[in-house]
Design goal:
It is a single chain. This protein is mainly α and 140 residues long. Helix content is 83%, strand content 0%. The chain contains 6 helices and no strands. The longest helix is centred in the C-terminal third of the chain and has 35 residues, at 105-139.
């Protein structure tokens, strides 16, 4: 688990450099991604379903991104794009495409359904967090 978290940190550090994230924000983006991946791994270890593990991970990443944006006075997307990258269901998309090529219709539907549920859970988590911060900003 520790190696995966360190791997997520290093991967997002490099990805953030490619995205030209300001140097002073590189560590923050990488930490947010690592914490999000930790939440996913812990949720899976506790027996929470895969889709809900992705949901809670995306909620934490989105929350931390909004907080970092306000504290460091930077756009939320600087933290959110890099932070959310480790939980994007790329492997599910690959498995779906592979199942299509191998003409395994049962696996196509299973992989596609799971991938779409994960993508939807991530989108809903980001939407909920963004909406809560907008409401909080309007009341303040």
């Amino acid at each position: 688990m520790i190696f995966q978290i360190i791997g997520a940190f290093i991967a997002i550090w490099g990805f953030s450099i490619l995205l030209e994230v300001p140097k002073k924000l590189l560590i923050h983006t990488s930490v947010i991604a690592s914490v999000g991946w930790l939440v996913y791994l812990l949720a899976e270890a506790w027996g929470i379903s895969t889709v809900m593990a992705y949901f809670w991970s995306a909620m934490v990443i989105s929350l931390l991104s909004h907080l970092a944006a306000r504290i460091l006075k930077a756009p939320v997307t600087v933290f959110l794009i890099g932070g959310i990258l480790p939980v994007v269901p790329g492997a599910g998309m690959y498995r779906t495409a592979y199942s299509i090529i191998m003409q395994s219709s049962d696996m196509v539907y299973k992989n596609l359904q799971e991938t779409l549920l994960i993508a939807g859970a991530i989108a809903v988590a980001i939407f909920i967090t963004d909406s809560l911060f907008r409401l909080w900003k309007q009341k303040a």
